[in-house]
Write a structure and sequence with these properties.
Layout: E1 4-8, H1 18-28, E2 33-37, E3 50-53, H2 63-74, E4 78-80, H3 83-89, H4 94-99, E5 109-111, H5 117-122, E6 128-132, E7 142-144, H6 149-161, E8 166-170, H7 175-178, E9 180-186, E10 189-196, E11 215-218, H8 222-239, E12 245-252, E13 258-264, H9 278-290
Helix pairs in contact: 1-9, 2-3
Length: 291
Amino acid sequence: MPDVLLASCADAVGRDEDEPLLVAALDALGVAASSADWADPTVDWAAAAAVVVRSTWDYAPRRAEFLDWAGRVEAVTGLANPAAVLTWNTDKRYLRELAGTGVAVVPTAWVEGPDDVAAALADRSGDVVVKPVVSAGARDTARFSPEQHAEARALAEGVLASGRAVMVQPYLERLDAEGETGLVYVDGAFSHAFGKGALLAGAALGPGLFAEETITARTADAAQRALGDRVLGWVTERSGEVPLYARVDLVPGADGAPQVIEVELAEPSLFLTTDDGAAGRFAAAIAARVS
């Protein structure tokens, strides 16, 4: 049994570009690591010194099962990120809580039932994005023009019928040219940034494991770093401990100032390929926790 098990899923085999870099970096530090499907009942999670949640990208349709698994693993060995963090971070309504602290978050209408759909759409004059509060890989997410509110309503009502609440957000036009900027933190320290090309062209994304993305290396500017650091401070204060890993995804508002679109603490790709030292930094943080 390796020292560290990287929790993955069956469909992610060979598709997680971070995994081979991380396993090699851990091996260089004398830490044996391998991946295992979180849903495989034959895996002896207790035999590992630590379990690190990585490419568990199929959790969304069975979130309750995934969170139950996390609780059971945490009872027998170290789990990063912790089960409590996974619980609140896998429901995007954490963004409402974050916005309540004064952090710049993409303006969001929260749709808890069918009666809320029309009002959420009426508040938006431009293109809107409709997405579930529980999803991974941008599944069941789509962009709609003002002329497509009937289609937007249909998607929202379909998501609600699946038992999930809905988010309605404005589509930020600067995304088309600038894309998103992701800030990666390892053990509380900024590691690296990456750029992500605009993803939403109109049709709903799904049902694949994840949407294909255009990822590039990027240097975060001072405003982005300040916002990312503030968010990480909030995460640390809220959870009572520094997360092993965190990804803060930022988008440009109408004035170009960064806004938070997502804070990923469950199973984010960290795009270790975009920075030569990223895998080593992540491996060192994991090694420090199992030493």
